[in-house]
Amino acid sequence: MVQLQKLRHILKGYGSVAVAFSGGVDSTFLLYMAHEVLGEKAAAVTALSCSFPERERREAAEFCKQRGIRQFVFTSGEMNVEAYRKNPHNRCYYCKTQLFTDVRRIAAENGFAEVAEGSNLDDMGDYRPGLMAVRELGIRSPLREAGMTKADIRAYSREFGLPTWDKPSYACLASRLPYGEVITGEKLGMIERAEQMLFDLGFRQMRVRMQDKTARIEVPQEQFLKLIGLREQIIPAYKALGFTYISMDLQGYRTGSMNEILQNK
Fold first, then answer.
1. How far apart are CA 258 and CA 261, in angstroms?
2. pLDDT, tens digit, 9 for 90 and up, residues 188-209
3. 20 to 30 A from 210, CA-CA: which of 65, 74, 109, 243?
4. CATH 3.10.20.880 fits 2-159, yes or no
């Protein structure tokens, strides 16, 4: 409970805060706590982006509606940034710079003293160029400041009855493309529809990685047989989306698999 008390103290010190809210585990917990501490002086700011599925947008909107939390929604502009579209190793830096610049503007226009995002201590151990943008723009990271890990956040979320306590970790759709492959709205749309089909088939933790016109499906190893059993449904559906080849990754689902090429250099 020491962490929770520290988080409440941090949030209270802000006076007012706009939370960059995607609807994921971390930002949902942060928004819940900010609203609990600050009431109407806390609000959500959510980006509409082709990098995130429509499903996530709906869930974020529903959470705010149910909790009576003010939500500001804007169309993100990362696809207008050439450096982002080129998809370099530090792609997330350009994306987050654009995103948080917009969030800061909305916060300032509506009188919020601080902008906060939901990264936690575990994020410090992965390749996260987006955190550089967070530091440069002066965005607050109260969950990290309070010393919370992902496991802590899930445990508190469960205690408070938040629907995201067991929600699988998620990352933007651009992370499904290998570095150096140009990002387009068409590719992101193909990936979103491909993953939505798997979601509808009952796969919660999964990824569809895309290289050229090849789809490489990642699911937990214990679900390999289930995926293979559904191949007669998946193959024609994916071909209709525009994929030429459909494969299954024998290493199974894992976060950051596109970063493995960085470790091997």
1. 7
2. 999 999 999 999 999 999 999 9
3. 74
4. no
